[in-house]
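User: Predict TolC family protein's structure from this.
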Amino acid sequence: MDLFHTLIASVIRRLAAWLLAMAILWLPVQPVFAQEGGLLTLPDAIGLTLAQNPELAVFPLQKRGLDGAGQTAALKPEMELGVEAEYKHFNEGDSDNTPDPEDDADNEFELTVTLSSVVEMGNKLQARVDVVNAQRDLLIADEQAKALDLLAEVIRRYTQVLAAQELVVLAEEKVALAREALSAVSARVSAAASPVSERMRAESSLAKAILAQQTDQSMLVYYKHALSALWGQPAQNYRVDSAELYRFDPGASFEALYERAQANPAIARFASEERLQASRLRLTQANSRPDVGWYAGLRVNPAVNETAVQAGFSVPLFTAKRNRGAELTAMTELDEVMLRREAALLQLYPQLFLAVTSREQALGTVSTLQDSVIPKLRQALTEVDRAYRRGRDSYVDLISARDELLSAERARIEAARSVLLFGAEIEQLTAGPLGPMSVDSSK
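Assistant:
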């Protein structure tokens, strides 16, 4: 898990914490295992996921969409050109439409050309631009949070592969012990020192061990496919270094981790969302200021050699009153963001505390099993096996000693997996390594 720690620690030291995930996204992709069945490291898995996962590929598209929205928001009110033509034809028999005798023309053609637009009041253009900029900030925060979520998910699935591979090794050991037990029982049965039923039980135990081994192998294949599915290649075959399962880093105090967690991208996102809602509120308030519409034109009647200039303006009435409901909605949405941030912080504390305490407990379990329990159980199995072959212990004692050892080894694998899984959760919540932030990232 060193790479994840190194990435986060180095970025936090050199840049502001909110740039963490963006910096990770631009890391060069690590060279991937070159051939089928090659060794897959955690750097390989992280590089492939960040480069090929479609959940991150949507953000550049959304950014391009916001660029278009920004161009639209920066547009000033459009100008409108209006042209109106009027043709009058006078009939000689219609006294009402008869032209003036002094006019030479029997028909009249009148042309009116106008130019109109709107003067935006309340600095609406800047308010629209501010909304788009706030949407960009929120998109960056979402991208950071999604990158950290994916990093944590890579570690979780990689940990599952490590544990599954260790369980396969343990299943192989169980099969080997079952074969040894069957050999010992067969020898005693052949010497008439044990009943035939003991050999039958040993054969049944071997069959069950082989069945359990097949199950563990199937789970290993599943977890491998689940991991490689993160970069779109679920059918790939590879190996992992099982020793990574037992490499643990020291953790910082809960107080230090909680202080870090309050600034992680998931929480910082609320600040970006709050700025967006505040910008929308300002735009809504600006819309309460009525825009002034204006027009200017020229009317020409060549028949009577008449030219007239036209001009005017219009202002909608009661705009602020009609916009009052939209303002109330915008203010409510802004208040809701702040309340959701407080609720998220309240949920964060017990979630982080549970992860920290559970990891410490799992660390203690691994240490106890590895240093005290398993060595003694392994020695006890050797003694019981020797005693059984000499006729001093029963078959039940042999099976009991073997099962106790295998159960302890399985418990150690499960505890080690819990340590790494809880560690990944802590790093996701804090957006940083488990240890002190001043850790040397070159190590």
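The domain at 2-76+120-288+323-430 is CATH 1.20.1600.10 (Outer membrane efflux proteins (OEP)).
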